[in-house]
Amino acid sequence: MPATDLSLLIDAALEAGRIATRYTGRTAERWDKPLGAGPVTEADLAVNAMLEARLPAARPGYGWLSEETEDSTARLERERVFIIDPIDGTRSFAEGSRTWAHSLAVAENGVVTAAVIYLPMRDLLYAAAAGQGATLNGVPILASQIASLDEAEILAARPNLEGRHWRSGRAPNFTRAYRPSLAYRMALVSQGRFDGMLTLRPSWEWDIAAGDLILREARGRCTDRAGNPLRFNNPHPRLDGVIAGGEKLHTLLLSQIDPETAGIRP
């Protein structure tokens, strides 16, 4: 990883925040993507245009994968690739909420090596580079090391508690919380604000790439729902869910999830 990849992502994320906050959320023009792929706003597209012009120009040899750019197989031929979500939590942005984020990452041979999650409306910038630890606004952060599900507070959407996902037919007795941005959920676990997070449905790479590295560099563990390390820049850029938390809590969660429901589903 070039030493300047992280600084490049930080500068780009700050510029993304300046662009996105020029829009006013509820009054920003909004469309629904085809095939139920969710909403997109003019702010998403403006941020994506800036990032797509700026980042590949700074790293001509890198591939490109972004939620708001038509995918190309050309990225599969590149050793390094940018993985970008211009605005994670578009629905929240469109509703005028402050809980949305820019998620920027670089992956090398499938492993994320530099990452930034930035929430401009909350003045929160999470960052990490491989082997250098994770920070929030420049201050080192560490994931929770709690070792009890009964005492844990875990970020998860309500459908993840359905009995079909769990060996016992019911979810463990943890306290559930929720935030609309998946990248922000992973960042909150990285800083120890919550003990863990999980999503048991197929997840797009751009939602989780940055959070994967930030959490691992904060001494947490992050895998798919079957316990496999996350690998990025796949031909179909979707992974089989995410389980994240401190090492002990991650092990406990994984032991409770039913492996028969694992695997990418339509």
From TrEMBL:
CDD domains: CysQ (cd01638)
Domain of life (superkingdom): Bacteria
InterPro entries: Inositol_monophosphatase-like
Record-stated family: Belongs to the inositol monophosphatase superfamily.
Record's protein name: 3'(2'),5'-bisphosphate nucleotidase CysQ
Species of provenance: Ruegeria sediminis
